[in-house]
Amino acid sequence: MYSFAELVSLDSLEKLKIPIYNIDSPASGVYMSFDALKENRPSVASKILIERKKGKFVVFRHYKNDMKKVLLDPQGIFAVSDGVTLLRVFDDGQFFPITKRGFDLYYDREISSQLSRINEFNPYLFPDGGHIGATLGGDLVIRRKSDDLPKMTYRYKMNYRTGVGHPVNIINR
Fold it and tell me: What domain of life does the UniProt record list for this protein's source (predicted)?
Protein backbone atom coordinates (compact mmCIF):
# COMPACT_ATOMS: atom_id res chain seq x y z
CA MET A 1 0.00 0.00 0.00
CA TYR A 2 1.19 3.51 -0.88
CA SER A 3 -0.06 6.83 0.38
CA PHE A 4 -1.12 9.49 -2.14
CA ALA A 5 2.08 11.47 -1.50
CA GLU A 6 4.16 8.33 -2.13
CA LEU A 7 2.33 7.69 -5.41
CA VAL A 8 2.98 11.26 -6.56
CA SER A 9 6.65 10.83 -5.64
CA LEU A 10 6.85 7.55 -7.60
CA ASP A 11 5.21 9.20 -10.62
CA SER A 12 7.74 12.03 -10.45
CA LEU A 13 10.60 9.50 -10.37
CA GLU A 14 9.18 7.80 -13.49
CA LYS A 15 8.83 11.16 -15.25
CA LEU A 16 12.54 11.88 -14.63
CA LYS A 17 13.28 9.11 -17.13
CA ILE A 18 10.97 10.52 -19.84
CA PRO A 19 12.77 13.03 -22.13
CA ILE A 20 9.79 15.35 -22.89
CA TYR A 21 9.42 16.09 -19.17
CA ASN A 22 13.09 17.05 -18.82
CA ILE A 23 13.73 19.40 -21.74
CA ASP A 24 13.14 23.11 -22.24
CA SER A 25 11.95 22.96 -25.86
CA PRO A 26 10.72 20.05 -27.98
CA ALA A 27 12.26 19.01 -31.30
CA SER A 28 10.67 20.50 -34.41
CA GLY A 29 8.44 18.10 -36.31
CA VAL A 30 5.31 15.98 -36.35
CA TYR A 31 4.65 13.50 -33.54
CA MET A 32 2.33 10.75 -34.73
CA SER A 33 1.97 9.14 -31.28
CA PHE A 34 2.39 9.96 -27.64
CA ASP A 35 5.32 7.55 -27.46
CA ALA A 36 7.18 9.64 -30.04
CA LEU A 37 6.39 12.78 -28.04
CA LYS A 38 7.58 11.20 -24.79
CA GLU A 39 10.93 10.38 -26.40
CA ASN A 40 11.10 13.84 -28.06
CA ARG A 41 11.71 12.10 -31.39
CA PRO A 42 9.35 13.42 -34.05
CA SER A 43 7.93 10.77 -36.35
CA VAL A 44 8.51 13.25 -39.17
CA ALA A 45 11.42 15.58 -38.45
CA SER A 46 10.57 18.69 -40.42
CA LYS A 47 10.56 22.45 -40.19
CA ILE A 48 7.14 23.51 -38.93
CA LEU A 49 5.60 26.98 -39.14
CA ILE A 50 2.86 27.82 -36.61
CA GLU A 51 0.70 30.89 -37.22
CA ARG A 52 -2.19 32.24 -35.20
CA LYS A 53 -5.09 33.61 -37.26
CA LYS A 54 -8.30 34.89 -35.69
CA GLY A 55 -7.55 33.13 -32.40
CA LYS A 56 -6.90 29.75 -34.04
CA PHE A 57 -3.66 28.01 -34.89
CA VAL A 58 -2.74 27.27 -38.49
CA VAL A 59 0.17 24.88 -39.01
CA PHE A 60 2.35 24.51 -42.11
CA ARG A 61 5.08 22.02 -42.93
CA HIS A 62 8.05 22.99 -45.09
CA TYR A 63 9.03 20.84 -48.09
CA LYS A 64 11.90 20.79 -50.55
CA ASN A 65 14.55 22.72 -48.63
CA ASP A 66 12.08 25.31 -47.29
CA MET A 67 11.02 26.31 -50.81
CA LYS A 68 7.41 25.24 -50.31
CA LYS A 69 5.09 25.29 -47.32
CA VAL A 70 1.99 23.10 -47.17
CA LEU A 71 -0.94 23.21 -44.76
CA LEU A 72 -0.61 20.31 -42.31
CA ASP A 73 -3.35 17.66 -42.45
CA PRO A 74 -4.19 16.86 -38.79
CA GLN A 75 -5.45 13.31 -39.44
CA GLY A 76 -3.58 10.77 -37.31
CA ILE A 77 -1.25 13.32 -35.70
CA PHE A 78 -0.86 13.46 -31.92
CA ALA A 79 1.22 16.64 -31.58
CA VAL A 80 3.31 19.08 -33.61
CA SER A 81 6.11 21.47 -32.69
CA ASP A 82 8.12 24.23 -34.34
CA GLY A 83 10.91 23.85 -31.79
CA VAL A 84 9.38 26.43 -29.44
CA THR A 85 5.62 25.85 -29.33
CA LEU A 86 4.16 22.39 -28.77
CA LEU A 87 0.56 21.83 -29.92
CA ARG A 88 -1.86 18.97 -29.18
CA VAL A 89 -3.60 18.05 -32.45
CA PHE A 90 -7.12 16.70 -32.87
CA ASP A 91 -8.51 15.09 -36.04
CA ASP A 92 -11.11 17.87 -36.41
CA GLY A 93 -8.30 20.34 -37.11
CA GLN A 94 -8.10 21.95 -33.68
CA PHE A 95 -4.71 22.73 -32.17
CA PHE A 96 -4.14 23.46 -28.48
CA PRO A 97 -0.86 24.61 -26.91
CA ILE A 98 0.68 22.12 -24.49
CA THR A 99 2.30 23.73 -21.48
CA LYS A 100 4.60 22.15 -18.96
CA ARG A 101 4.01 22.92 -15.29
CA GLY A 102 6.40 21.13 -12.99
CA PHE A 103 6.46 17.54 -14.17
CA ASP A 104 3.06 17.61 -15.88
CA LEU A 105 1.80 18.50 -19.36
CA TYR A 106 -1.47 20.43 -19.77
CA TYR A 107 -3.61 21.88 -22.54
CA ASP A 108 -6.78 24.01 -22.39
CA ARG A 109 -9.74 23.14 -24.61
CA GLU A 110 -13.03 24.97 -25.03
CA ILE A 111 -16.13 22.79 -25.29
CA SER A 112 -19.85 23.36 -25.09
CA SER A 113 -21.10 23.11 -21.51
CA GLN A 114 -24.49 21.91 -22.79
CA LEU A 115 -22.91 18.63 -23.89
CA SER A 116 -22.26 17.72 -20.28
CA ARG A 117 -25.95 18.16 -19.44
CA ILE A 118 -27.60 16.41 -22.38
CA ASN A 119 -27.15 12.72 -22.97
CA GLU A 120 -27.94 12.60 -26.66
CA PHE A 121 -29.24 9.36 -28.10
CA ASN A 122 -29.40 8.53 -31.80
CA PRO A 123 -30.26 12.10 -32.83
CA TYR A 124 -33.07 12.67 -35.30
CA LEU A 125 -32.36 15.78 -37.32
CA PHE A 126 -35.09 18.30 -38.14
CA PRO A 127 -35.14 20.56 -41.24
CA ASP A 128 -33.84 23.54 -39.25
CA GLY A 129 -30.93 21.51 -37.87
CA GLY A 130 -32.41 20.71 -34.45
CA HIS A 131 -32.34 17.27 -32.90
CA ILE A 132 -33.95 15.25 -30.13
CA GLY A 133 -31.97 14.37 -27.02
CA ALA A 134 -32.58 13.38 -23.44
CA THR A 135 -31.44 15.04 -20.25
CA LEU A 136 -29.74 12.98 -17.57
CA GLY A 137 -33.06 13.03 -15.71
CA GLY A 138 -34.79 11.35 -18.66
CA ASP A 139 -36.70 14.39 -19.94
CA LEU A 140 -37.03 14.65 -23.70
CA VAL A 141 -35.64 17.87 -25.21
CA ILE A 142 -35.42 19.34 -28.69
CA ARG A 143 -32.38 21.49 -29.20
CA ARG A 144 -32.17 23.67 -32.24
CA LYS A 145 -29.04 24.43 -34.21
CA SER A 146 -29.55 28.15 -33.62
CA ASP A 147 -29.49 27.80 -29.82
CA ASP A 148 -26.53 29.59 -28.30
CA LEU A 149 -24.66 26.98 -26.32
CA PRO A 150 -22.49 28.36 -23.55
CA LYS A 151 -18.82 27.48 -23.89
CA MET A 152 -16.51 26.47 -21.07
CA THR A 153 -12.75 26.06 -21.17
CA TYR A 154 -11.39 23.00 -19.41
CA ARG A 155 -7.77 22.36 -18.48
CA TYR A 156 -6.69 18.83 -19.38
CA LYS A 157 -3.77 17.06 -17.74
CA MET A 158 -2.05 14.54 -19.97
CA ASN A 159 -1.48 11.11 -18.48
CA TYR A 160 2.27 10.53 -18.66
CA ARG A 161 1.86 6.86 -19.55
CA THR A 162 -0.90 7.00 -22.20
CA GLY A 163 -1.12 10.65 -23.33
CA VAL A 164 -4.86 10.77 -22.70
CA GLY A 165 -6.05 14.16 -21.45
CA HIS A 166 -8.19 14.23 -18.32
CA PRO A 167 -10.09 17.39 -17.31
CA VAL A 168 -8.76 18.67 -14.00
CA ASN A 169 -10.05 22.23 -13.85
CA ILE A 170 -12.55 24.66 -15.37
CA ILE A 171 -10.71 27.76 -16.60
CA ASN A 172 -13.72 29.95 -17.43
CA ARG A 173 -17.49 29.64 -17.69
Answer: Bacteria
CB atoms within 10 A of CB 9: 11
Q: What is the pTM of this model?
A: 0.72
Q: What is the dihedral of CA 52, 54, 56, 62, to 10 degrees?
A: -40
Annotated domain spans of the chain: 1-97, 99-173
Q: What percent of the chain has pLDDT over 70?
A: 76
DSSP string, the chain: ---HHHHHHHHHHHHTTSGGGS-SSPPSEEE-SHHHHHTT--SB---EEEEEETTEEEEEEEETTTTEEEEPP-TT--EEE-SS-EEEE-TTS-EEE-EEETTEEEEEEEEEGGGGTEE--S--B-TTS-EEEEETTS-EEEE-TTS---EEEEEEEEPTTT--EEEEEEEE-
Better-predicted residue by pLDDT, 10 or 34: 34
Greatest distance between any 2 Cα atoms in the chain:
59
